[in-house]
Amino acid sequence: MDLLTDLEDVDAIDVRAVSRLYQVLDRRPVYSEGLQHVVQAVEQHYTRTSPKPLTRRLLASLLSETGGHFEEMNWAQEAAQCRTIAAELAPGGPDRSILYLLSAISHEQQLHTLTSLTVDAVLRALLYEVGRSGRRIRRAGILSAVAYAAHSTGNLARLRTTVEALAPVADTPGCRALVIFYRSRLLIADGRIDEGLSVEQEFTRAASRVGAGDRAHHQVVSALASVTPHDSAMAHGSEATLRGDYAEASKWYGRSVEELPPSPLRSAMRLYAEAARVQGGLLTSPAALRACLSRLCVDDVFAARTVTTVELLLTGLLMRAVDLHEEGHDAEIVAELADFLGEFRGGTAVGRPQDGGAYDTDARADMTLVDFLARTAAPVTPAEITQDLPGHHVVWVTLSGAGVGEHYLTVVTLRPSHPVPLARRTHVSAADGKALAQCLDEDSEDAPAEAVRRISSLFFADVEPDAADARILVIPDSVTWAMPWNELAPHGATDLTISMSAGAVLRSRPTRSAAVPRVIGIFDEIKLKGSRLEAQALERLEAQGHIHFTRVHSLAELRNALEAAPYDILTVSVHGTESDGFEYRMLLPDGPSSPAALLSLGLPQVVVLGCCWSAKSTERADTTAAALSCMAAGASQIVGGLWAIDDELAGRLLADTYDRHLRRGVPLSRALRQAHLALPQDLRPGAAGLAFIGRS
Question: Would you state the pLDDT for residue 406?
């Protein structure tokens, strides 16, 4: 067979998309919606094209594993479908696939120059194929090659899995020595430096006993060379970090940035350089923090999210800024860093140019969204926010901490009457922690009034007490995103908006008002009483001449209608699943649809998602919820469900919101706030799961 000799010849975008689909299988529990997403993505795109041989092998392995999950769920028909497509894509079985995949990660390949997701797809497929290979395949050799590729590309997650699989099948002294070496690397990466160095010494002793005839001799020699100091800037940086010489480490990692081409690995080196400055206490002024932030932006630090943990460094920078504020410096840099954290969590997906044809399939749309999330944004200043959002209180909420009893709540408040923000860092007491837990997600519907008051006072302590008509924009972190914000907000607040970042709000287009708005909706009136209430409210408004209302019954019909004429509001009132990110499904009348499908639509500026979990915060840094998908596709205002809200209550709330907004002319964010406060007191906590997101 012709083996692969150059990874750059593969369908790079397609291989990256396959790696994303593998992430569905790596999550626990594996949702049936996620498995269906895998099959739909493959059928929708790859079976209609002629992918290159490597892509075909990867797809076949992906589908075979997906079929195995379907079998565990006793979905025999779906499992058989996966096997059939896999056999058509790549005949010859796992042994043939292993040979081909191994050639893609040989020592001759310059893996560090390739997109990390491209290599990850190959590694993930190999790990699966090894488990079902025949007797002729030497598992230890394959897993050693996978470990080498994972280590050389900084893929710690795959390296961890591979070492666990390699240890019990290591069949030579050299192979067993490699297990020890990679364990030392994992310990050091986890910050357990002393343990890692001790295991490294154990590897050095084991390596000295490996003869030239050992099958793993070449890899052991290569690993041994990386233990001893050598001339690469990256190695010098790592060695300095191990010594605790952070100034030296920052210098060498910075030099490594200069040596590498633009890539996620280069971005990661910049991340390590700035992390060394944080660890070494080298950022001693707001000016030093701003210079650090500037370097991170120049080297596209968000692109490193596929290689390493970005949020940890950004949180460390934020805490350093708070330290400086507590020493007497102003809090402007604290607000800038708090918002930059929000940009990392999803704000960069908003207001970015869309690539033509990027959304033609769910698989491509998902990869496009990853690229959006990896775009570093320029930090916004409090002065810019005050100028573009006059009359708004902006409140950033960040919960950080390393363990039980060590959590801190950082709240930064920018008031319209004063351009300098206020910053508070509060140690989270046991009572505070209990109240926070009671006010999260669906649990908040049963939260005691005292817990709600306690959290409200922590979040909104610096909102001007005499601001009877306060407009509040909250930038929550991923922990505090799903909270009952309309219940927590000060009672006098006229509207309450949440967003990923203030920068995302500033990049959103201001909504235009139409004399007679055009509204289009898709509803599940058979299963959802709330959906009927919502549709009936819109029908009444049309009969009264306040709107033009169009009803559709399928995704295809919706797409055609949006292409044929402009609309001002889209409402989707159907069931939503509790799955996360691209596994999430809106159960439309004609079948399930992923958030990626929204990206291919010509969305109006206002989208109302009356679906459970449509606005939840995702569990991974590189996936997004349906609400954010809409904002990435051009919508400026979203109403979405933070958790599983009762459908009848949601329909009642939205019906009143439409009446206030479309008949009385109240701005949408304010109309939702008024409708919420107009509910009976006992119903309001349950209705707080519907939130307004975006630009008010």
Answer: 82
CB atoms near residue 270 (< 10 Å): 25
What gap in Å lies between CA 75 and CA 31, rounded to an integer?
A: 13
Chain position carrying tokens 């139409």:
514
Spatial separation of the C-alpha atoms in residues 70 and 548, rounded to whole Å: 45
Task: DSSP letter for 354, please.
Answer: P
pLDDT tens digit string along 415-461? 987 888 999 999 999 999 999 999 999 999 999 999 999 999 999 99
Cβ atoms within 10 A of the Cβ of 72, count? 10
For 185-232, give the DSSP string: HHHHHTT-HHHHHHHHHHHHHHHTT--TTSTTHHHHHHHHHHHS--S-
State residue 307's pLDDT score: 73
Q: Describe the crossing of helices 193-207 and 217-227 by its angle, rounded to 10 degrees.
A: 140
Outline where DSSP puts E strands in 39-137: none
How far, in Å, are 222, 362, 371, 624, 655 from residue 602 at the CA level?
53, 16, 20, 19, 25
Cα–Cα distance measured from residue 272 to residue 283, given in angstroms and rounded to the nearest whole number: 14
Distances (CA, A) of 101 to 12, 25, 95, 402, 533: 15, 19, 10, 40, 55
Amino acid residing at 249: A
Residue 107, pLDDT score:
63
Ranges of residues in the chain with a pLDDT under 70 are 1-11, 47-48, 107-110, 112-114, 191, 228-231, 355-359, 402-405, 465-468, 580-582, 619
Point out which residues pair with 327 in neighbouring strands.
none
C-alpha of 147 from chain center: 26
Q: What pLDDT, on the 0 to 100 scale, is given for residue 520?
A: 97
Q: What HEC string does 288-326 produce? A: HHHHHHHHHHHCCHHHHHHCCCCHHHHHHHHHHHHHHHH
DSSP 330: -
| Beta-ladder partners of 486 | none
Take residue 668 and report the two structure tokens written for it.
């949408």
Amino acid at 473: L
- Helix/strand/coil (H/E/C) assignment for every residue in 640-659: EECCCCCHHHHHHHHHHHHH
The first and second tokens of residue 652, run together, are 């009642």
Give burial (CB, 10 Å; 0-12/13-18/19+) of 258: exposed
What is the DSSP-derived secondary structure letter of residue 168? G
Q: How far apart are CA 590 and CA 662, in angstroms?
A: 29
Single-letter amino acid code for the residue at 437: A
Lookup: tokens for 566: 């402009």
- At 230 the pLDDT is 58
Q: How are beta strands 690-694 and 637-641 bridged, if at all?
A: antiparallel
The length of the chain is: 696
Distance CA(533)–CA(43), nearest Å, equals: 37
Q: Which two tokens stand for residue 445?
A: 């519907």
Residues 6+ apart with CB under 8 A from 504: 342, 343, 346, 347, 348, 349, 350, 351, 631
Identify whether the C-beta of residue 501 lies closer than 8 Å to the C-beta of residue 343.
yes
Is the bond preceding 29 in cis, omega lying within 30 degrees of 0?
yes
Question: How big is the CA angle at 349 (ends 16 and 658), to the nearest 5 degrees?
Answer: 130
Residue that the structure tokens 């169009």 belong to: 550
| Confidence at residue 352, expressed as pLDDT on a 0 to 100 scale | 76
- Listed as own residue / partner, the contacts of 160-165 with beta carbons closer than 8 Å and 24 or more positions apart are 160/186, 161/127, 162/123, 162/127, 165/127, 165/130
Neighbours of 622 (CB within 10 A): 18
Tokens standing for residue 172:
């030579």
Contact 116, 154 (CB under 8 A): yes
How high is the pLDDT of residue 564? Answer: 94
Q: How many CA atoms lie within 13 A of 362 on its CB side?
A: 23
